Every structure is written in structure tokens, then in C-alpha cells.
Amino acid sequence: MSHAIALVQRQLDAYNAHDLEAFLACYAPDVRVETFPGGEPLCLGRDAMRARYAPLLARPDLHAALVGRLALGRVVVDQERVRGLDPAREVDALALYEVGQGDAALIERVRFVR
């Protein structure tokens, strides 16, 4: 398994375990989280991610199921079905992760398609 795939899986596992610190540890300090298409910033930096994800991960019913995964080099694309974001329904999303170079690299950019 490549480093990029293992890292993306580790952040997904931490998300589903509601472990904010383990989740954030997978991301670079200057991570960019954006919408796709459009590139509207959702979070710029790990501190902004902490503010956005702390309340989400506090929801006991929050869970992202991996529907499918594609990977090529440093890019991993996950198709996810998330429950707990909207109480009325599950949310389908694509998450495009860009991992930095090297075996100790972190996730540098995420783009969400919903």
C-alpha cells in the first residue's frame, strides 16, 4: 500500500473514531480544504480545520463509509457516503486528497465534490 493511500485511510479511520487529534495529525499545517469545482476555500490551515471539524466529530452518529477509492501517485480520490451531517439523509461526496512528496508527507490539499 502506498504512503498516500495509507495516510488517507488513517485520516478516515480517525474521522470515524471521532478522534480529532489523530485526524488533524494527517494534515499539513497549511492544508487547503476547498470545494470542487470552484475552489471556494472551506478551511485554510490546520487551525481552521480544528474549528470546523471539532463540532462535527462531536456528533455521535457521524460516520463516513468508503464506497470506492482510486489512487495515482500522490493523489487519492475517495467516494464516501456520510451520515450524521444532515439528520434527514446520507450525503454522497467525493474527496480528492493531495499528499505531499516523501514518506513522511501529510495531506496538503483536499477538494470536496458534493
Structural write-up:
With 114 residues, the chain is of the alpha+beta class. It has one domain (3-113): Nuclear Transport Factor 2, Chain: A (Roll). It contains three helices and six strands, in the order ααββαββββ. Strands 2-1-6-5-4-3 form a six-stranded mixed beta sheet. A hairpin with a 2-residue loop joins strand 4 (75-86) and strand 5 (89-99). The longest helix has 14 residues, at 3-16. The protein is globular and about 40 Å long.
What features would you highlight for this structure?
single chain; 114 residues; alpha+beta; Nuclear Transport Factor 2, Chain: A; six-stranded mixed beta sheet; 6 strands; globular
What is the 3D form? globular
Taking strands numbered 1, 2, ... along the chain, how are they ordered across the largest sheet? 2-1-6-5-4-3
CATH fold call: Nuclear Transport Factor 2, Chain: A
CATH class term: Alpha Beta
Number of discrete helical segments: 3
Number of domains: 1
The mean pLDDT is 95
What percent of the residues sit in helical stretches (DSSP H or I)? Answer: 25-40%
Major sheet summary line? 6 strands, mixed
Oligomer: single chain
Strand segment count: 6
Taking pLDDT < 50 over at least 5 consecutive residues as the criterion, the unreliable ranges are none
Percent of residues in beta strands: over 45%
Order of helices and strands: HHEEHEEEE
Radius of gyration: 13 Å
Distance between the termini: 27 Å
Q: Based on the coordinates given, report the CATH architecture.
A: Roll
Structural class from helices and strands?
alpha+beta
